[in-house]
Phosphate transporter ATP-binding protein (Levilactobacillus paucivorans), 252 residues
Amino acid sequence: MSEEILTTQDLHLYYGEKEALKGINLNFTDKGITALIGPSGCGKSTYLRTLNRMNDLIPNVTITGTIKFKGQDLYAPSADTVQIRKEIGMVFQQPNPFPFSIYDNVIYGLRIAGEKDKEKLDAVVEKSLRQAAVWDEVKDHLHESALALSGGQQQRVCIARVLAVSPEIILLDEPTSALDPVSSSQIEATLLNLRHDYTIIIVTHNLQQASRIADRTAFFMNGELIEVDQTKNIFMNPAQKQTEDYISGRFG
Ligand SMILES: Nc1ncnc2c1ncn2[C@@H]1O[C@H](COP(=O)(O)OP(=O)(O)OP(=O)(O)O)[C@@H](O)[C@H]1O
């Protein structure tokens, strides 16, 4: 399917007086991976956070423009942020499991929603952990603390926690930058499997990672979207000089 699931039109974001996003127009079709790259401070994380209203939690933020998820204005007064964050889940740079068991981490969202059917919860735990490619490693320890896992395992449990509430879009903010190379490649493999079923948007500093996993890559600089294209075009034949300079390591 190639219909647009998420659209951003003329998006500006201000932290107080400072304009961090300067009129972003960027759309996402259903399924696949889009990487957001660019030098430090260019607004990648800020942009990612606007997509499930995480910036609402920061004081003094002003947002103008339009973001639509399946045609509905994400910032409409009637929009339900709890529902939005279920449909558009987020995985952070530092794995952030709750200080509960692996099982309770994965079912956290369902339990909050009032689900009590143990058979259903068991099934969701297994399915989500399998999708996150960590089931085999944790299946005999489901009722032990998630904090006892390695960083890479914790991050895959966090991905399972997002998957358990059946999102359509998964946002990831540098999900491997705190992990060792083996754990990072396990996360990359997990995302490559998930790309068939979910729309994935990942902020990464790691250009090789973007080139390995992303179908599409968007290059940001100074709060602007400079260019977005198929990943191979961005890396092999960018349209903009700024993109070429960044990709070839001339700055950033
Ligand atoms: N909570 C905040 N309050 C004020 N300014 C902020 C806040 N968060 C980010 N900024 C500023 O907004 C700009 C964009 O930051 P952002 O973190 O989105 O960039 P980034 O491209 O993700 O950077 P990095 O790659 O270093 O994480 C920066 O100038 C940053 O200092």
User: Anything to note?
Assistant: The mean pLDDT is 96.
